[in-house]
Amino acid sequence: MTPYGRAFPGVEIRANIIENLLEGNVLQRPGWITFVDVAGMLAVALVMLGLLPASESPGPHCSRRALLAAYLFLATVLFRTEGLWLNVVYPTLLIVLLFISARW
Questions:
Q1: How do the pLDDT tens digits run along the chain, 104 residues long?
Q2: Is the distance from CB of 98 to CB of 45 less than 8 angstroms?
Q3: DSSP states of 5-72 as a string?
Q4: In whole angstroms, what is the distance from residue 37 CA to residue 96 CA?
Q5: Does the global pTM surpass 0.70?
Q6: Who has the most CB within 10 Å: 7, 30, 60, 91?
Q7: Residue 78 in contact with residue 37, Cβ under 8 Å?
Q8: Distance, CA of 21 to CA of 11 (rounded, Å)
């Protein structure tokens, strides 16, 4: 499976893999990035907890969406420019779950 679908020829997949290996353009996830992921989740949680008391007004709802968009944008920029792969699933899930729990 590729981003281009199932119809992408197998020869092209192998050619891209070989080219990336020869050029040293390999997707890497260093061991220290786990600490960055945890720190990012803690920062997101602290910001969200700061927004929870004012959950009745529409402002915090927009700021939660903005926080989610900012984190996804940061992860995308770091991936495209530096080749760093930040985890986006857990922080996104954290934002959504804290948002839902604030509504109850």
A1: 566 667 777 777 788 888 888 988 777 778 888 898 888 888 888 877 776 665 555 555 677 778 788 888 988 998 888 878 888 888 888 878 877 776 66
A2: yes
A3: BTTS-HHHHHHHHHHHHHHT------TTHHHHHHHHHHHHHHHHHHHGGGTTSHHHHHHHHHHHHHHH
A4: 17
A5: no
A6: 91
A7: no
A8: 15
